[in-house]
Amino acid sequence: MLKVKEKPYEFMVFPTVQKAWIEGKGILLWAALFFVEFGASLFLVSSFFKCLWGQTAGWLIAGVLGGGCHFFFLGHPLRAYLAIKRPKSAWISRGLLVISLFQFLGLVHLILAYFSTPVFWVMVAADVMAVAAVLYGGYELADVKSIPTWHSSLLPIQLFARSFFLALGVMLAIYLIGGVETIGYGLKTKKWLNIVLLINIFLFIAYLINLANEEGKKRLALDMMLKGDLKLLFWPWVGIGGMIIPLLLVAYSLVIGVASTPAGVLLIAVILQLIADPVMRYCMMRSGSYPALLPGWRSEAR
Amino acid sequence: MRWGMVINLTRCIGCYSCVVVCKTEHFLPPNVVWNRVLVSETADSYKQIYPILCNHCREPACVDVCPTGANQQREDGIVWVDADKCIGCRSCMMACPYQVRVFNEKPGEYFPGQGFTPYEKMRGKLYPLQLGTVSKCNFCLEKIDEGLKNGLNPGLDREANPACVNACPASARIFGDLDDPYAEVCIALNQGKGYQLRPEAGTDPCVYYATR
Fold first, then answer.
1. CA-CA distance, B38 to A262, in Å (whole number)?
2. Which residue among A71, A138, A161, B94 is least crowded, i.e. fewest CB within 10 A of its CB?
3. HSE of B46, CA atoms in CB hemisphere, 13 A
4. Helix, strand or coil for residue A188?
5. Per-residue pLDDT tens for A179-189?
C-alpha cells in the first residue's frame, strides 16, 4: 500500500507518492487551486442570479486567496510574468493568464456595477474567464502524465462540476440565512439546496468510482484513502461529513417536508460539504503516485 | 550528435561512487541529489542495483511542461535548466517519470550545527545553485563543452567525460555519441541488449541499462 512517508531506500523502488505539489510550499498549490476554482465558480453562479455580493466575494476569494497562494507557491514569484507571456507552453502559464484576465475583467465589471451601470458584455467576458479559471486546475493536474490517477480526461470536468455546485450550494445557503425563500427565476431556495446537496454527494461518489476504474486491480490511491495513511482524514471529513451526514439531513428534510425544514439543517450540510471538497482534493493530490522504476517491481504493488 | 550513456548492470557493484563524485563535482548540498542508486530485492531474492540519473530524454516531458522555457534541450540532446528563467513551479518535477529533479531549497550543512565547511562555502563561488529553482544532472555539460573546444572527444577522453563516468571503479558507465555507430557506447548498447527505464512513459531516454 502507498505510504505518505516512504523510507529513503524505498524511493521509486516501489510506487512513490508525489511530494512537489503537496509538501512544504507545495501545499500552497492545493490551496491555490481550491480557492481559484471555488472563487471563480462563485462569481459565475452569482452572475446567473445577478447577485453582486456573490460576484464580489468570488472575485476576492479567487484573486486574494487563490492568486496569493499561487504567488507564494512559486520559488521565484516575481518572474511569473515569464510564464504569463507564454500561454502556449503549459497549463500553469494558461492558468496564470486566465486568472489575471478574470481578475481584470471582474474588477472592471464590479467597478461599473457599484459606481455606474453594469455592462452586460463585460460581465459575460468575465464569466468566460471565470469558466477558464475553474477548468484550469483540473487540466493542470490531468496534464501530469507521470501520475496515472491524475492523467484522466474526466478529472477537469469532475473538478469543474464540484466547484460549480459547491459554490451554488454556498450561495443558496447565504440566501437562506438572509431569509430569501425564492431566488431568481422563481426557484425555491430550500428545494434547490436539497438538490444541490444530493448532486455534490453524487459527484464525490463519481470521483471515487472513476478513481477505482482508473487504477484497475491495484487501487493504490483508493486504498490509501479508504484504508491507508489518509483514512483518518478521508472518513471523518469526506465519507461521513461530506456524504453520509448531508444525505441523512436531506432525507430528514424530505421526510418532514422541504418547506418546513429548519434552515440550520441545510446550512450544516452545506458547511460540511464546503469542508469535504478541499479535503477530498488534498487526498487526491496526496495519493498521486509515480509507478515504480525498477522493471522487476513495476507490476507488483507492495 | 546525441550524447547518451549505457550503464552495464552486470558491472555495477553498488559502491555509490557516482553519487559521491556528482555531489563533489557540483558542490551539491546534502538535500540535493542528482545521481541516485536504487537497490531492491525481487521476490525470488535477486538483488537489483540501478544507478539513476537524468535520462536526457529525446522527448523530454519536463521541457514540454515548462511554462517559461527554462527547461531546454540542446541540439546534442542534453536537457538543462536555465535557472535565471525558472520560476520554481515544479511542473517539471511532476512531469518527470523518473523523479530525478530536485527543488533547491536552503542548503543544509553536511555537519549540522557546525556551519559550512570551507569546501561547502566554495559552492557559492564555483557552482551556485539558485534557491527556489529546480536543478538536475546536466551530463557535466561544462566538461563536455570545454573538452570539445579543446579538441577532445567525450566518451574517449577522460577530461571531457561526465564525472560519474570517470569515477566508476568498475567501468560500468559508458558515455558517448549515440549517433555514432562505432562509438563504444553504441557497441555496448547493441552487445548488451540495452533497454530504457519505463519505455511506456514515451520519453525515449538516452540512458540505457545493459545486462551483458
1. 60
2. A71
3. 10
4. strand
5. 887 776 777 89
Query: ipTM score here?
Result: 0.92
A145 touches chain B (CB under 8 A): yes
Amino acid at position A296, single letter: G
CA-nearest residue of chain B to A77? B87
Closest CA to A201 of A288, A116, A276: A276
* Contact assessment for residue A230 and residue A224, using Cβ atoms and an 8 Å cutoff: yes
Min Cα distance B146 → chain A (Å) is 31
- A220 near B CB under 8 A: no
CB contact under 8 A, B38 and A75: no
Nearest Cα of chain A lies from the Cα of B65 at a distance, in angstroms, of 5
Residue-wise pLDDT tens digits, A119-171: 999 999 999 999 999 999 999 999 999 999 999 999 999 999 999 999 999 99
Beta strands (DSSP E) in chain A are: 16-17, 182-183, 187-188, 289-290
Whether A86 contacts chain B with CB within 8 A: yes
Inter-CA distances, B52 with A6, A12, A185, B95, B182, Å: 18, 10, 62, 17, 25
Q: Flag whether pLDDT at A290 surpasses 80.
A: yes
For residue B123, what are the contacts with CB-CB under 8 A and spacing of at least 6?
B27, B29, B107, B129
Q: Contact B50/A294, CB-based, under 8 Å?
A: yes
